[in-house]
# Entry
Amino acid sequence: MASPARSPQVTASGAPRPGGPGRLGDRTVSRIGYGAMQLERLHGDRKAAVALLRRCVELGIDHIDTAQFYGNGFVNDLIREAVRPEDDVVVVSKVGAEPDPGGPLPLRLAQRPEQLRAAVEDNLRTLGMERIPLVNLRRTDSGPGLRAQGDQIVPLDDQLAVLTELRDQGKIGGIGLSSVSLDVLRRALPAGIACVQNAYSLLVRDDEDLLGLCREEGVAWVPYFPLGSAFAGMPKVTDETAVRAAADELGATPAQVGLAWLLHHAPNVLLIPGTADPAHLEANVAVGGVALDEATLAALDAVPSRSADVTFD
# Structure
């Protein structure tokens, strides 16, 4: 006898999906996921890191974002240990960069097709998977971060060709893009794009047209730096007067208000806030219960957007 269909409101374990259900490619996932980069901070306490990932599953998170270059495989290895097949978690990784421990920055670009292929293989190995549900191509067309130079300037079609081949081989499920422009997304759509990860927040809304196209095409919008960042030139959402006023009125934190605004702003938004602290994790999950009425939304929508394009040589 076939098992009864599971409600989209709950995960495989029966936990309510934080933020409700959203779409990521061909999968239904919790709109509030988890960005695993911060697990690097728990390098000296593996037990705590594994426990945090298990707590994600218990809280209904079934969308985890990672990369081989997070801790040079350390974070992927944690996910391999902590996340079980029966959890039915969609693990999303990314390629386009690699660790550079001795360099001026901890990362260097790895944009060439052979580097993308090698990165997928490295992710498969450290995650212990035969197939990664979704792989994002981290480009350098927009947003904060590195800019490609020399042999790292690679045509989009060459990159999509190798990722499409890997998808056809069954090594990856879906293809996503990160740090891309509106024109790049338009050119990539025929290849079948499942999500876009760009820097985006209440205070940095340069990509509103790109978000709109994603919504029209059924592409998930997964913002990074959803609350700003410590980089100079990146405004912090939690410092904004309107955000703090809304937080006081709602009995929430400014961070929760900033994240809740994103969920309210467009139905295709999926969040991946990261943390290494269990209490902070629970506060992020609770964002799904933060209701913003029309007046509050109007006050937040009226906050002017500031352009932010922090780049590194």
Remarks:
- The first strand starts at residue 21 and ends at 24.
- The two ends are 60 Å apart (CA to CA).
- The chain has one domain: 21-233+267-275.
